[in-house]
Amino acid sequence: MNIQVLKNIFQRNDNAARENRELLDSTGVTCINLLGGAGAGKTALLEAVIPTLTDSLRVAVLEGDLATTKDAARIDALGVPVVQLLTDGGCHLTATLVQQGLQRLPLDQVDLLFIENVGNPICPANFDLGEHLRISVLSVTEGDDKPAKYPLLFKDVPLIVLTKCDLQPLTDFDFDTVTRDLRRISPEADILQTQARKGIGIDSLSTWLRTRKLRGSPYPVGGRQHEG
Amino acid sequence: MNIQVLKNIFQRNDNAARENRELLDSTGVTCINLLGGAGAGKTALLEAVIPTLTDSLRVAVLEGDLATTKDAARIDALGVPVVQLLTDGGCHLTATLVQQGLQRLPLDQVDLLFIENVGNPICPANFDLGEHLRISVLSVTEGDDKPAKYPLLFKDVPLIVLTKCDLQPLTDFDFDTVTRDLRRISPEADILQTQARKGIGIDSLSTWLRTRKLRGSPYPVGGRQHEG
């Protein structure tokens, strides 16, 4: 009986995810699901990279959190559309909740949508939200054992962003160990080293996002006019 | 139907938790459930504090992880009994899994049992394992917004350990903000600042653990002879 119900939960999620993807495709929005543990630096990364994109891409954000609007307020300060999705204690975003968020965004005026998932290295990786790709975030202060301990977080992602790299000399974090473990999990993934607060690595991330080919074609960079 | 099944899951867990607590009580073992996000520094804290306790307390550890035995190997190096509990991708320990771990420990030769939960700031807080108290761990590198964002992690715990405090000057982490937010969530909790690798704050933690009164009486410190 448990298994049946869990199947239903996943099936309901997957149905909503498929609907989300169809909606995003039909409105020309590329959607990225940003995953990582609490404090990995996902919001800081968005704060740093979004201003480098908005000259030619119309960006929006869905912010996942359990109970607060702290992160949405930080994104709102960048002047891009943002909707806070509250899970009410839930440990991951669901496609159904994302569906509600999509209804509140002006999708016909968006090229690139980031979904910042709940800060949790485990559960979010199990739920398709209808995104086109995932980016996984790992801070050096979390420790270099984390790819081996949380492999699903880094599996089948095209990009892994290492954050807070300025703090590495003060930790035991070994870039070689992490790169080797990540290569084992996602052999094709790009790995970027960043330090969001000082802007280090943000240009590389920005270039990656602008040139990334999705579904056989690149983003509509410059191909659509800003309307806002 | 979903609700009924979830009720069953919690009820099964709570039954096992009650049995665990009865077993621990009957064998005179005090059990601490150590909670915190991935990379909060729970294992490093155990590595630092256990050697300060073993002169008069017989310590054992149950190590929770999704897939690896990395943490158990670190604890094993301290020379105390340890059992690795693998959740096989699950995001929290259950009382049932802990029950299996307890069967593999020489409980009649243990005074103090640490259960290190899966690194996850959300799900583990919802599951009673049969412990006598919880200690929550937060690293300064995770950010000072975490108590507000993950209140359940810090609720009804007698002790919150802040870790990696040496890195605070390199972050925006504000001790006043965190202390104020933690006081709101758990007014009675003690808050300790530590840096495990240099041993800072570890004496205070050790003293706290030795003198903590549980169920009306202190640990059997020195009251039982080592047999191992």
Q: Any overview of this molecule?
A:
Two copies of one chain form a homodimer. With 228 residues, chain A is α/β, with parallel strands linked by helices. The first copy, chain A, has one domain: P-loop containing nucleotide triphosphate hydrolases (Rossmann fold, 3-Layer(aba) Sandwich), CATH 3.40.50.300. Helix content of chain A is 36%, strand content 19%. Chain A has eight helices and nine strands. In chain A, the strands form two sheets. A seven-stranded parallel sheet of chain A has the order 3-2-4-1-5-6-7, with helices on both faces. In chain A, helix 1 (2-26) runs parallel beside helix 4 and helix 2 (42-53) crosses helix 8 (202-211). Residues 220-228 of chain A have low confidence and may be disordered. The interface between A and B is large, with 36 and 36 residues.
The CATH class designation of chain A is Alpha Beta
| SS-derived structural category of chain A | alpha/beta
- The structural domain count of chain A equals 1
Strand order of the largest sheet of chain A: 3-2-4-1-5-6-7
* Binned strand content of chain A: 15-25%
Mean pLDDT of chain A: 90
Rg estimate of chain A, integer Å: 17 Å
CATH architect. name of chain A: 3-Layer(aba) Sandwich
Main sheet overview of chain A: 7 strands, parallel
- The number of helical elements of chain A comes to 8
Q: Shape of chain A from CA axes?
A: globular
Say which CATH homologous superfamily of chain A is assigned: P-loop containing nucleotide triphosphate hydrolases
> Which two chains touch over the largest interface?
A-B, 36 and 36 residues
Q: What level of helicity do the residues of chain A show?
A: 25-40%
Contiguous low-pLDDT stretches of chain A (5 residues minimum) are 220-228
At CATH level 3, the topology of chain A is Rossmann fold
Helix-strand sequence of chain A: HEHEHEHEEHHEHEHEE
Compute the number of strand runs of chain A: 9
Terminal Cα span of chain A: 50 Å
Multimerization state: homodimer
